[in-house]
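Letters spell out the chain; the tokens describe the backbone. To illustrate:

===
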Amino acid sequence: MLPAPAEAAAPRITVARGRTRLVLPLGRGIAWRLTALGDPPRLVLDLPGQAWSGPARLRGAGLIAEARRQGSGASLQLVLLLAGPVAAPRVTARAGQLTIELAAGPVAGFARMADGRLLAAAPPPPAALPLVVLDAGHGGRDPGTIGARGTLEKRITLAAALELKRRLEAGGRCRVALTRGRDVFIPLGDRIDLARRRQAALFLSLHADSAPGARGASVYTLSETASDAMSAALARRENLADRAGGLRLPSVPPEVGRILLSLIRQETRVGSDRLARLAVASLQGEVPLLPNTHRRAGFVVLKAPDVPAALVEMGFLSNPQDEAALNRPAHRARIATALAEAVHGFLGAQAGAVARMG
């Protein structure tokens, strides 16, 4: 449960001895986070749960060109538009106020900071953060798809999952668990059970499959009726992963299957679709996309009845251009950045819903 919104006055911006200082009265229990972004250069201060009594825009001074309020409630942010690059901020929080002190810094130094990394944050109780489970497809004796140049899908998915984990943890908004953190085979059912057992807020499975003539990233959510023939074929291929790893899940009697399917709540389906829409929107413009990017099929790893889930095909190793791109760390970093943005958007909307119910 988020703390009750704390009413606070607007921040004060002052300049002295070449340094710019912002002082913000801060409510109790506010889990603030400070990150840096470029184009334009700015600092973003997340203030979930803090109410605001000041104006939406504040005239800047010194290194702060302008301060803008964005969102409200669980999604409240204070965006500091900068007059130029700054060094790493000095941040202190005490006695009901947060102080951010800025000094000019080199362009290259700010560029290194401005990849969305966490600069400073309040230390929230770890258990209070939502859990995101990342599933690196295949592994061990199951290599997944093998590209024309010999690229193994299991290596691409693990590298991408580790990069996404790093970015999510740097954001400080969630805990992250991997279904596998090394080259090992994990049965499909165990991947689902991990998410359910640990009450995950969402489950995201990463893949780079094979499909004749297909190129570009796509996002899948659960449906027992596939949205198209290619999605059905992909689901059949992925669902055989246990056999490739030398294990079989026990068969389920029809009546048990009907009960399990009936447990897939509408709320979970809505959440999965929301996650998929956010992922598609974030990937748009960053990497090539498959037409009709959000698709549906009966992937086993998406069948947890109580955990919103999506499967991301980052591209197709059967396509030479996709294979070459997925082997480049910079390309995987773009995918990870986009998916981290989608996850943060999903968690922000979820926290806002909880706050409204509370």
In short: Residues 12-124 form a domain with the Immunoglobulin-like fold (CATH 2.60.40.3500). Confidence is low (pLDDT under 50) at residues 1-7, 244-250. The first helix runs from residue 107 to 113. The chain has two domains: 12-124, 128-357.
